[in-house]
Amino acid sequence: MLHRKPYSETSLLVDLLTEESGRLTVLAKGARAKRSALKSVLQPFTPLLLRWTGKSSLKILTKAEPAAIALPLQQTALFSGFYVNELITRVIEPETPNPQLFQDYLHCLTSLAVSQNFVEPALREFEFKLLHILGYGVDFLHCAGSGEPVDENMTYRYREEKGFIASLIKDNLTFFGRELIAFERQDFSEKSVLQAAKRFTRVALKPYLGNKPLKSRELFTQTILHLK
To answer: Rg of the chain over CA atoms, in angstroms?
Structure first.
């Protein structure tokens, strides 16, 4: 389950990510009723076995039961899981089958559950895989201006829809060649590469997300400020 919200007095509208049908929105009738078994089942980060009916964009949920126990996400990992859920909800078109996305999502959640407070590598890996699924096709290994292989020690500036071009300008869109090579390998073991990857994915995902702020990011910031 990616997200849910109340519908009428006793029901829920639920966004799901399924292995064979992609992202779906289903109506869970009576799920908010006191005696509904669905109330405890429709929880984030719990693998589910599901059945639904309907040919319109809004399906009717007919069965839901846990396929395994919920992944134990806490603190930073929990907020990171909400962030991943919101990314999928915002950028993936409904009813577009994508088994690879489903597997990438499970892998990300499992990594978050294991790492807990050191979540950045898992998030960056998922963001890069998501960009690939969205059709993002930038070449990290060659200069978009000359076609030459990137040099580890040179700097390259990112230009949307073009790629990375050798440049002496240093700003938020500038990356070292060694960072770009690490991006291609999805190797985020070095702290500097991890920081650069975060800068890049925020820029690359922005056209898909638009200007609407991510609620999960706002919630995390508010919680940290409250704890201080």
So the answer is: 20
